[in-house]
Design brief:
The complex is a heterodimer of chains A (about 300) and B (about 475). Chain A contains ten helices and seven strands. Chain A has about 300 residues and is α/β, with parallel strands linked by helices. The chains are: A alpha/beta (about 300), B mainly alpha (about 475).
């Protein structure tokens, strides 16, 4: 039995060492590439880059805001760091990730979606594994320790020590990107130089759904954290509510944020690929309206 | 507790060490097995442990009484009591709602509306497996094939042995109980073969079944909008999902038993290399098909009766076998299809040389058999008969325009990975079949490679419970 146990442990150890080394290499390759927004943010811009505007949010702001148009209008560098399948806590994490690189932004736009108005879900988002290459950074590890689910082991959270755990858990999301990044480190997965992605017009809807009405005071504590963070880093914060096809959002006028609420701006089916994402033609309209309202916005500090 | 869970990865070494440290104390070993089996099962739901204990106790007491009773009438009564208890539990937990709804539908058909009295019943995991195992014990004592257990501890261990408790193989007392009654000796080569089987089983479950499940679930959910090709891929992937899932579980169960010094019966022998349906049923879920053969088919007269009665017996076995899988007409129909496909080979007393080991020469038969097996899987996987027929209709009509797999890069990658490893698995199985082996025992160095494949290609994020837990 002793021989069996020793050999089993030996084989297990060898396998774990190889697996950890491979996972570490995979994460390093990804971390050095532009493949995900999280890695592109780190590598694409020079140290100390000053942005005129940085946009954070989910797929809705990715679909609605064209930073190329904004940059042309303001004459500064505007980049969209929104990531699909993410909630507000992920936007906060991306913002922390942004400041951690030593970047600054005159304006920070945080896009807000219906599920995040009053509170956010307490689990990680679908694409949060894209932060995995930087798991050794404290703010990222803290995020996963807080939000990651797991009865006995939280694979991403302890990936700092055993990278194979996080890599194995998200292997289908990480393996092919790592292979692609190895071949072409500058490849960007579904976004361009300025972080933009668009839903083609042929996906446009045909029918108008029954509208739904919501009121909010934007009481989500994550928003407060975002406001504090931007203030601390000298950025001016704008809360942006992008267009919805059926949802009419009314924001309490007494909120202490600068808000651009375009929830009912272009509510025509032809501008939407579904109820919450605009197609390319909708994006153009949404961005033009955003620019128009942005120029009107009060630049005085808000408490 | 699932074999592919962190909990089990912690549980197993602890039990293994405790078990072999007490190798000189046979009784203590049995207590360790029993307690760890109850912990293993109770991890899922402690409340249903009482069912296993009750079922074990009833059959232990009936077995002892049967051993002492000579009068045939009393012996039949005792057997009936065991049948009533075990099948009663199974019937209540597994089939009550099905019968209630079926009666209601039958009355509705004749114009009388009766609302079914559904009960909110949870199906205890593995109840079909351990019930059949304990039943075999009483049957064998009744037929005087085995002596009743004198000591409760080995018997309770036999019923609840954790490697095979929830999804088989369904063991016979004549094979397994004796192993509990004797002291066990650690055998290095057997333990190594067990470990090899465990890794191979995990590969089939985690890499093939769990990844295939992601695609299969969505294709079956949206089958109305899928193209023929997508639907065919859906069935093909399900065929390997259920095989990887169930045979993977069996391999792990057999492997685990070996490292504890037990020998479990073979449950799968490369079924997708079968050359006809008859051959398929000698390779698929062998412990269940042989159970039905021994305790249903043969008592009904087997094949030593008229052709018509033989036909009836075969059909009964297949229908009951289908029904055993679940309280749904889809499973009964699945059994019916297999029964009807089995009959011609049964009466022809096939002269095909099933010992022809050149896989290449037998490819047309293998392919044809696999195709008809896949047809049956549509019924097995569908939520109801209507959906199954519709699924087939959509394969033929090609009305849908969607293709779930090719709709996103990630799914194409998963599909490619699953297909690659299915081919690898089939190649390995064909190789072992050609060498006339009954199981895949890969060399040690390749296990490292296989574990790396599991780690980097396994469906951990989407990991699912074993399909056969629900049966």
């Amino acid at each position: 039995m002793k021989k069996f146990v020793i050999k089993s442990i030996l084989y297990l150890f060898i396998t774990l060492v190889i697996a950890n080394v491979l996972a570490y290499i995979g994460l390093r390759i990804l971390g050095k590439s532009d493949f995900f927004k999280t890695t592109y943010l780190v590598h694409h811009f020079p140290e100390g880059q000053a942005f005129d505007m940085a946009v954070f949010g989910s797929s809705r702001s990715l679909a609605a805001i064209d930073t190329k148009l904004i940059g042309e209008s303001t004459g500064g560098l505007a980049v969209n760091f929104s990531m699909d399948y993410t909630a507000l806590p992920s936007s906060l994490l991306m913002l922390e990730h942004f400041y951690a690189q030593g970047y600054t932004a005159n304006w920070v736009v945080v896009s807000l979606d219906l599920p995040d108005f009053e509170e956010s879900k307490t689990t990680i988002s679908e694409n949060d594994h894209r932060f995995l290459p930087y798991i050794s950074n404290k703010y990222i590890r803290d995020y996963f320790l807080k939000y990651e689910e797991g009865n006995m082991i939280k694979p991403i959270s302890i990936s700092k020590y055993f990278p194979v755990l996080g890599f194995a858990y998200y292997n289908m999301e990480l393996l092919a990107p790592a292979a692609q990044a190895l071949i072409k480190p500058t490849f960007k997965y579904r976004f361009d130089e300025l972080g933009n992605y668009q839903y083609p017009d042929y996906l446009a809807q045909q029918e108008m759904p029954e509208p739904r009405y919501f009121k909010t005071s934007l009481s989500n504590p994550v928003l407060k954290k975002i406001a504090d963070l931007t203030k601390k880093n000298g950025s001016k914060l704008i809360i942006y509510i992008g267009p919805y096809l059926r949802d009419d959002i009314s924001v309490n006028p007494n909120v202490s944020y600068r808000v651009i609420n375009h929830s009912r701006l272009i509510n025509e089916p032809k501008y939407f690929s579904d109820y919450i994402h605009v197609v390319n033609s909708g994006k153009k309209l949404a961005t033009e309206s955003f620019i128009e309202d942005f120029h009107k916005i009060d630049i005085q500090p808000i408490n | 507790m699932l074999f592919n869970s962190i909990e089990f990865a912690i549980f197993l070494p602890i039990v293994f060490i405790l078990y072999w440290v007490s190798k000189n104390h046979h009784k203590l070993q049995l207590y360790i097995i029993l307690i760890s089996s109850y912990v293993f099962y109770g991890w899922w739901d402690w409340r249903f442990l009482s069912l296993i204990i009750f079922s074990s106790l009833v059959d232990f007491l009936i077995g002892r009484k049967l051993g002492k009773t000579v009068e045939e009438k009393k012996r039949k009564l005792l057997l009936g009591l065991s049948l009533f208890t075990n099948l009663g539990l199974l019937g209540f937990f597994k089939y009550y709602n099905f019968f209630a709804e079926s009666f209601s539908e039958a009355f509705s058909f004749f114009g009388k509306e009766i609302s079914p009295e559904r009960l909110d019943i949870i199906l205890p995991v593995g109840i079909s497996f351990y019930t059949f195992q304990t039943l075999s014990y009483t049957f064998d004592i009744y037929k005087k094939k085995i002596e009743p257990a004198e000591d409760w501890l080995p018997f309770f261990g036999f019923v609840s042995f954790f490697p095979q408790l929830v999804a088989g193989p369904i063991e016979r007392a004549s094979h397994l109980l004796g192993q509990f009654q004797k002291p066990r000796v650690f055998d290095y080569s057997i333990a190594v073969s067990g470990l090899r089987l465990i890794v191979w089983g995990l590969f089939k479950k985690i890499v093939i079944a769990d990844n295939a499940a992601v695609l299969v679930d969505e294709i079956f959910l949206d089958y109305m909008n899928q193209t023929s090709l997508s639907l065919i891929f859906g069935v093909l992937l399900f065929a390997f999902q259920i095989y990887g899932d169930f045979s993977g579980y069996s391999d792990i169960a057999i492997g685990l038993s070996r490292i504890f010094g037990f020998d479990l019966m073979l449950n799968f022998r490369f079924p997708y290399l079968a050359q006809n349906i008859n051959d398929f049923w000698k390779r698929w879920h062998i412990s269940l098909s042989s159970w039905f053969r021994d305790y249903v088919y043969i008592p009904l007269g087997g094949s030593r009766v008229s052709s018509w009665i033989s036909f009836r017996n075969v059909m009964i076995v297949f229908l009951v076998s289908g029904f055993w899988h679940g309280a749904n007409w889809t499973f009964v129909f699945w059994g019916l299809i297999h029964g009807l496909l089995y009959i011609p080979f049964f009466f022809r007393k096939s002269h095909q040389d099933l010992h022809e080991h050149s896989i290449v020469r037998k490819l047309p038969q293998i392919f044809l058999t696999f195709t008809v097996v896949c047809l049956g899987w549509i019924f097995f996987r569908a939520d109801n008969l209507f959906q199954a027929w519709n699924y087939i209709g959509h394969i033929i009509s090609n009305e849908g325009t969607g293709n779930y797999i090719f709709g996103a890069n990630k799914r194409v990658i998963i599909f490619g990975i699953v297909m690659l490893f299915i081919m690898l698995m089939m190649f390995v199985e064909a190789y072992y079949e050609s060498k006339q082996k009954k199981e895949v025992l890969l060399p040690s160095w390749s296990l490292v490679l296989l574990v790396l494949v599991i780690v980097f290609f396994g469906g951990f994020k989407n990991h699912e419970s074993f399909i056969y837990f629900q049966f």
